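Long-time lurker. I teach an intro course on protein structure, and each term I like to show students one example going from raw sequence to a predicted 3D structure in token notation. This year I'd like something fresh instead of my usual example. Would anyone be willing to generate the tokens for the chain below so I can use it in lecture? Attribution to the forum is fine with me.
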Amino acid sequence: MPLQNRVTPFSTIEADPARGLFMGNRGCLHGERQNLEVEKTREKRWLICLTNFKNRKRRIMHPGHYTELFFLDEATALAAGHRPCAECRRQAFDLFLKLYPGKRANAEILDKYLAADRLRPYPATFSEVPDGTMYAIETAAFLKWRGKAWAWQHGGYAPAEIPTGTLEILTPESTVAVLAAGYKPVVHASASSLRP
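-- Reply from a regular --
Happy to contribute to a lecture. Here you go:
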């Protein structure tokens, strides 16, 4: 049975057997039996990490340690309110920090601002947001990528119709500004403009 450690663009944590491209954490959310006890945390540092770094091995949901969370891709993690890890994804972190609106001196200050900005959907149209942005229509999540719309699922994306009207944007507004400034997230290969 899969563990409850797969994150959606809505920032909820679900059980799903699909594998993700990235790992991350929000602190310790699980109990002794690898069961998720809380989804909300006071931890402001929500990271996007590589699944393999310096051959480190971890026991998933080890009691007393941080809860390993998994994301389909970086666009999903960004929508959920996470940011690149400053250790295992240093180059991505440095660029994210550089492009983040306003002056951010370090990871701690960045995390403080991201914590205030995450989980506050806001309205915009499809044409107003950059590639890499995720949005919701009712209870479904979608990605804008290479000018096209893609329906999100834990296992990948499927082509969708480009929406009209005002949308509920899931990716935090400050992160959307980072995307607009040139940050290109890693997106699952299923969101390919070459697909029919």
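Some talking points for your students: The radius of gyration is 16 Å. The CA atoms of residues 26 and 134 lie 20 Å apart.
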